[in-house]
Automatic annotation (TrEMBL):
The lineage of its organism: Eukaryota, Metazoa, Chordata, Craniata, Vertebrata. It comes from Centropus bengalensis. This is ENOX2 protein. Residues 277-304 form a coiled coil. Pfam families: RRM_1. One of its GO terms (biological process) is ultradian rhythm. It is found in: Cell membrane; Secreted, Extracellular space. Belongs to the ENOX family.
Length: 351
């Protein structure tokens, strides 16, 4: 479900023989499925589908063949219980659960490479591949002669699976020789290839974001005005008629201005342009009359405002006069302390 497990019915059948019904029930329990037999009957009656777990069944080994390496999810306040991992050429023993988790460096951006230290002296690239390819696809292994190596994976999330193995003791085969044992330390590693791929990805995301914003801006951008038509005798007659109409005058005068700036005026069209300019000039008297009418309305509005404001000021003065009269001794002594305080505050606000 988390994308980290690669589980199939065939792989479960390979890792868990059908002769062991408890193991079959455990596998189905860890998959979050109700334990059912091959005939469709429930194997255990006390399975609680809401909890996704059964009583009396030990936790499954996350490194069991055919199952993903990610351990079953545990509550954040409970330490994860690591178990022994059996590989073909080696065995991994879990660290002491009471010890603090291994320290790791800060994760580099786009990290796909891990540092693996504490390898046995006799460990080969094939053994390292056998252990870590269970986490996911391995791109390259760069092994050093000093018992450490760098492993690069295909995806970033595989690195988190590889860190799960940090702290495990590894033993090659059944040997107890010091050269065949070691304690793994897995940590994030800086790699130029990872940083380059991460920067390329960031640039691609930035391009996509710019493209998305540009589309968003174009969606809300107001439409461009229609282009001005080219001059012709027909269009000239249309514009001349519009110039005589007060409601279409603004549109027509803009077309006339564009034609003149384009250089449409010549000896053949000069008379037509003169007629249109004359029509435009005839609107000046109308505009002057409208201006005078608006100025008259403005003066009337100013006079009305002055009258209203003077009435408001007169009422304010009357209210303040009431406060002053109430503050005189013969009336003031009859008010309570709270009433006097309110009257004083009201008087200051009104003034």
């Amino acid at each position: 479900a988390d994308g980290g497990r690669n589980l199939s019915l065939d792989s479960i059948l390979m890792g868990l023989p059908m002769s062991d019904p408890t193991a079959w029930a455990t596998a189905m329990n860890n998959l979050g499925m109700a334990p059912m037999g091959m005939t469709g009957q429930p194997l255990l009656p006390d399975f609680d589908p809401a909890l996704g777990m059964m009583t009396g069944i030990p936790p499954i080994n996350p490194m069991m063949p055919g199952l993903g390496i990610v351990p079953p999810p545990t509550p954040p306040d409970m330490p994860a219980v690591k178990e022994i991992i059996h590989c073909k050429s080696c065995t991994l023993f879990p660290p002491n659960p009471h010890l603090p988790p291994p320290a790791t460096r800060e994760r580099p951006p786009g990290c796909k490479t891990v540092f693996v230290g504490g390898l046995p002296e006799n460990a080969t690239e094939q053994i390292i591949m056998e252990v870590f390819e269970q986490c996911g696809e391995v791109i390259a292994i760069r092994k050093s002669k000093k018992n450490f190596c760098h492993i690069r994976f295909a995806e970033e999330f595989i690195v988190d699976k590889a860190l799960y193995l940090s702290g495990y003791r590894i033993r090659l085969g059944s040997s107890t020789d010091k050269k065949d044992t070691g304690r793994l330390h897995v940590d994030f590693a800086q790699a130029r290839d990872d940083l380059y791929e991460w920067e390329c990805k960031q640039r691609m995301l930035a391009r996509e974001e710019r493209h998305r914003r540009r589309l968003e801006e174009e969606r809300f951008r107001p439409a461009s005005p229609p282009p001005v038509v080219h001059y012709s005798d027909h269009e000239c007659s249309v514009v001349a008629e519009k110039l005589k109409d007060d409601t279409k005058f603004s549109e027509a005068i803009q077309t006339l201005l564009t034609w003149i700036e384009r250089g449409e005026v010549n000896r053949r069209t000069a008379n037509n342009f003169y007629s249109m300019i004359q029509s435009a000039n005839s609107h000046i008297r109308r505009l002057v009359n409208e201006k005078a009418a608006h100025e008259k309305e403005m003066e009337e509005a100013k006079e009305k405002f002055k009258l209203a404001l003077s009435g408001i000021l007169v009422q304010f003065e009357q209210i303040v006069a009431v406060y002053h009269s109430a503050s005189k001794q013969k009336a003031w002594d009859h008010f309570t302390k709270a009433q006097r305080k309110n009257i004083s505050v009201w008087c200051k606000q009104a003034e």
